[in-house]
Amino acid sequence: MMRSLKASDIMLNHIEPLRLGTPLPAVVKHLLINHVTGLPVVDGNRKVVGFVSEQDCIHALLVSNYHGEGEPSVDDVMISKPVTISPEMSVVDLAQNLGHGKPKVYPVEDHGRLVGIVTRTAILAELARLGAGVDVGRFAEAQ
Question: Where is the CBS domain (predicted)?
Fold first, then answer.
C-alpha cells in the first residue's frame, strides 16, 4: 500500500503559488498565512519559474532594511530552476531522497503546469499514519 502512494495523493492544491513580480512583503504574508516554508513562483501559464523560501525572504528583508534600497520583489529573491516533481512520483522514493540541504517543499508539475505542492510535513504525516499507526486526524483536517 505504502509503495503505491504517489505525490498526487498527498499534495496540497489549495495554496496559490506566487506570481512573478509579487512584492516581497506580499510574499512573506503569503508564506505566513499558509504555514509553509516556501512556495513555487509561476508565470502566467502556471509554469514553475522559481521558488522562494522563508530563508530567502529573511535574507532579503535584512538586506533591504539595512540598505534601505527599493522594495525587492519575488523575482529578486527566488531561486531559478527549482526542483519539481511529477504527480506520479512515489512518496517512498521522495521520502528517501529527502536530506540535508534538500527542499522542504516540492512543486508538483504536470505537463509543464503547477498542480500542487508536496511538503515535508505532509510526507511525515502520511508515513506516520501508514507505518506507525500515528493518529494524525486533527493534523490532516488542518491542512
Answer: 11-69, 78-136
Which tens digits make up the pLDDT trace of 29-75?
Answer: 999 999 999 999 999 999 999 999 999 999 998 887 766 667 789 99
Using DSSP, how many helices (H) and how many strands (E) does the chain show? 7, 6
Residue 120 neighbours by CB under 8 Å, 6+ apart: 98, 104, 105
DSSP H helices, the chain, are 7-10, 24-34, 54-67, 74-77, 91-97, 120-127, 137-142
The whole-angstrom separation of Cα 140 and Cα 38 is 19
User: Residue 116 in contact with residue 13, Cβ under 8 Å?
Assistant: yes
Is the Cβ–Cβ distance between 97 and 21 less than 8 Å? no
d(CA 102, CA 70): 31
Sign of the four-CA dihedral 113, 117, 141, 94: positive
What pLDDT is recorded for position 142? 46
Q: Domain-by-domain residue ranges, the chain? A: 2-142
Give the tens place of pLDDT for each residue, 13-32: 999 999 999 999 999 999 99
